[in-house]
Design goal:
The structure holds two protein chains of two kinds. By secondary structure, chain A is of the alpha+beta class. Chain A is built from four helices and nine strands; from the N terminus they run E-H-E-E-H-E-E-H-E-E-H-E-E. In chain A, a hairpin with a 3-residue loop joins strand 6 and strand 7. By secondary structure, chain B is α/β, with parallel strands linked by helices. The longest helix of chain B is centred in the first third of the chain and has 16 residues. Classes of the chains: A alpha+beta, B alpha/beta.
Chain lengths: 182, 588
């Protein structure tokens, strides 16, 4: 028997990691984002993206959308731990591939390149609700809304075409149909 | 418009509203207006600690021995950072603490002002919730809410940071009492009958059941302990307890298998490993309990009763979870049992008789035994004598952290809840002495003993001064082995006896130290003088430091070595020498 070298146990078997989108409704008060983000970092959970803004001006409710990954056990803990925070009202959890959920992310790209490459770049963006917001003689800024992985791909494609700056919001989510998450 | 009063006065108004009698604290620049106001509130007594960590642990001892929230008052900057260890300790062990901290005036926040720190930022991960009060109109509500949150659901510490200008500013005093408005479902849960019936059905089907109970029973109040005793007598099931749960069930009762976990008894751990039904009441499957998670109690169905939903499934998957306060759960469980299965204990006896036979076999190992000596005091013997000589009194025990803590847990038998205060989750050396101060403040006239190690107790020794100032006759019973004993034990077992920095070379003379503080010092060197000296200690109505010189090389057994399941315990030094084979350890 190998001699135990630690006063702690060894890690057990890990479950399979899944991508989830967690939506959290919180009181928009000082420090609330730090509480939520601190919970993730303090307990070793992962944040891929985080989008937050106040959605109810009267009640001061903000909606935070977090893309995360973890084993089913970890995802369950994330939800339970979030619900314990005092300013948290409700927590929704969606699998990334859930067909009943709409996910969108907005991105801005600045492309500086030759006319030919800029033409190409604009074409590539076209099917993602693209909108040119600014133009100069050798550049443009374009807005797209798409899925996260589509934007990932776009960034790869636009790289050689003169992409110099990318800014993205992180995913936001909403259920399809007339249902509202309670 | 009503009378205008200052923020400082509002603080005391809310304390009075919540019937607070004692606060533990330390003054400083940013909290002076509150200290100035103290004289006008005669029902509230301030206990001056010697360090904010001491104030915090004293507040914990106060809370745990009385069931009321502990209140502490500290200044900004270092006052707040010194409180962090105590707050984290309270967070880990679910102790309700309301910490009020002063802060630099609002206009200086963010300027790196003198004694400024980001108190709410620093304490965010170690409190249930905290507030920086920027408007005096919010103060009364925030303070009121602080008490509510500290005491609701799973209890814990909260912090209210009050800038100095807010302490001076005046406003009307109104508590809006919008109770539970924003509780967002964070209330005390209650079990429904369907859940209770499921539990009963699983209990009926089991032939190898065990109750595994924890600090949740204590936190739920003394009534929960009564109901637990009733439940064990209704069912005839064996019961084991975590470190924090000791006292919820009588330690000398035959149904009690002793503490479980890393230094738990052989019978408790083997029963956990071999049971077919585990009923966890108010415990949290801590890693000192479970050992290797993959091999934790592999053959059992598990029921988990916990007030905190996030405890469910955090470490161990369970078959049935009930989110409930322990008292309310046990009340319905016992009631349903009595309605439907009046004579369950007798009718079920045959069903679990083989299980009890197994348990008795494990008991025969007498895993808490040790080789006693006539020459040198064995630490276990010292705790046993202390127990025998103090058990007639309603004694409160606190501890520091390490070997002495485990020996105290193993050999001191508790019969009542709220009599055992120890730092379990955070494992804070230096906890016991200040905690004893708080326990004695809450329980005047009672015997309060800190079973200590000489290394731990030196971390907060300054609080002896507090004990002397307020005539708190606490007894500091030091098992002095000159080592950080648990560190030394792990170095012996895991690091080839490389005793790196675990020996304390220049210990103080504890007897003289006691005298310097104005209390009494006693030293015991030989086993045959122990009883007399313990009696002497108990009979002195002053704080005492008892320097009990014990065998420096004694190890704490039994022990589950790291990464091993419950059925592979080391029982003593012999086991350890043999370089035990896997078979040898599978003693089932």
């Amino acid at each position: 028997m190998a001699k135990p070298k630690s006063a702690y146990s060894e890690p057990g078997k890990l479950g399979k990691s899944e991508h989830h989108i967690i939506v959290v409704w919180v009181d928009n008060e000082a420090g609330v984002l730090a509480r939520v983000a601190g919970l993730f970092s303090g307990r070793g959970y992962n944040i891929e993206s985080l989008a937050v803004a106040e959605v109810d001006k009267k009640k001061h409710i903000s909606r935070i959308t977090i893309v995360t990954s973890g084993t089913p056990q970890v995802i369950e803990q994330i939800k339970l731990q979030l619900r314990k925070l005092i300013p948290v009202h409700k927590v929704a959890d969606f699998k990334r591939n859930d067909p009943n959920i709409l996910f969108k992310e907005l991105a801005l790209f600045k492309v500086v390149s030759s006319k030919k490459n800029r033409e190409k770049a604009r074409k590539v963006c076209k099917k993602y609700n693209s909108l040119v917001l600014d133009k100069s003689k050798n550049s443009f800024v374009i807005q797209v809304t798409a899925l996260r992985r589509e934007i990932d791909k776009l960034i790869d494609t636009l790289g050689p075409l003169g992409l110099v700056s990318a800014s993205r919001t992180g995913a936001v989510a909403m259920t399809r149909g007339s249902e509202v998450f309670k | 418009m009503g009378k205008l009063i200052s923020g400082a006065e509002i603080v005391f108004k809310v304390l009075e509203h919540h019937n607070v009698k004692h606060i533990f604290g330390y003054p400083g620049g940013a909290v002076l207006p509150i200290y100035d106001e103290l004289k006008n509130h005669k029902t509230i007594k301030h206990i001056l600690a010697r360090h904010e960590q001491g104030a915090g642990h004293a507040a914990e001892g106060y809370a745990r021995s009385s069931g009321k929230p502990g209140v502490m008052l500290v200044t900004s900057g270092p006052g707040a950072t010194n409180a962090v260890t105590a707050l984290t300790d309270a967070y880990m062990d679910s102790v309700p603490i309301v910490c009020i901290s002063g802060q630099v005036p609002t206009h200086l926040i963010g300027t790196d002002a003198f004694q400024e720190c980001d108190t709410t930022g620093i304490t965010r991960p170690c409190t249930k919730h905290n507030w920086l009060v920027k408007d005096v109109k919010d103060l009364a509500d925030v303070m009121d809410r602080a008490f509510e949150i500290a005491m609701t659901g799973r209890p814990g510490p909260v912090l209210v940071d009050i800038p100095k200008d807010i302490q001076f500013k005046k406003t009307e005093f109104i508590i809006k009492n919008k109770k539970n408005k924003k509780s967002n479902g964070k209330l005390n849960g209650k079990a429904n009958n369907a859940e209770v019936d499921k539990v009963i059905n699983m209990m009926k089907k089991s032939s190898r059941p065990i109750f595994y109970t924890g600090g949740g029973v204590i936190n739920s109040g003394p009534e929960a302990s009564k109901l637990l005793r009733e439940l064990v007598s209704i069912t005839g099931f064996p019961i084991t307890s975590t470190l924090q749960g000791l006292g919820a069930y009588p330690g000398d009762d035959p149904s009690f298998l002793g503490m479980l976990g890393m230094h738990g008894t052989y019978e408790a751990n083997n029963a956990m490993y071999n049971c077919d039904l585990m009923i966890n009441i108010g415990a949290r499957f801590d890693d000192r309990i479970t050992g290797k998670v993959d091999e934790f109690s592999p053959k059992s169905k598990k029921i988990h009763i916990d007030i905190d939903p996030s405890s469910i499934g955090k470490n161990i998957k369970v078959d049935l979870a009930v989110i409930s306060d322990v008292e309310s759960f046990l009340k319905s469980l016992n009631k349903r049992f009595k309605e439907k299965n009046k004579d369950f204990s007798n009718s079920n006896k045959a069903n679990i008789s083989n299980w009890w036979k197994d348990i008795d076999k494990w008991r025969q190992k007498k895993s808490l035994n040790f080789k006693n000596s006539k020459e040198v005091i064995k630490p276990q013997y010292a705790v046993q004598r202390l127990y025998e000589l103090s058990k007639q009194k309603d004694t409160y025990i606190t501890t520091e952290v390490g070997q002495h803590q485990m020996w105290a847990a193993q050999h001191y038998k508790f019969n009542k809840p709220n009599r055992w205060m120890t730092s379990g989750g955070l494992g804070t050396m230096g906890y016991g002495l200040p905690a004893a101060v708080g326990v004695q403040v809450a329980n005047p006239g009672k015997l309060v003993i800190d079973i200590a190690g000489e290394a731990s107790v030196l971390m907060t020794m300054q609080e002896m001064s507090t004990a002397v100032q307020y005539n708190l006759p606490i007894k500091i019973f030091i098992l002095n082995n000159q080592y950080m004993g648990m560190v030394r034990q792990w170095q012996e077992l895991l690091h080839e006896k490389n005793y790196s920095e675990s020996y304390t070379a220049a210990l103080p003379n504890f007897v003289k130290l006691a005298e310097a503080y104005g209390c009494v010092g006693i030293q015991a060197k030989k086993p045959d003088e122990l009883d007399d000296k313990i009696n002497e200690m108990i009979n002195i109505n002053k704080p005492v430091i008892f320097d009990c010189l014990v065998d420096p090389m004694e190890n704490c057994f039994p022990m589950i070595p790291s990464g091993k399941p419950h059925n592979q315990m080391l029982l003593g030094p012999e086991d350890e020498k043999e370089e035990v084979s896997d078979e040898g350890k599978t003693l089932v």
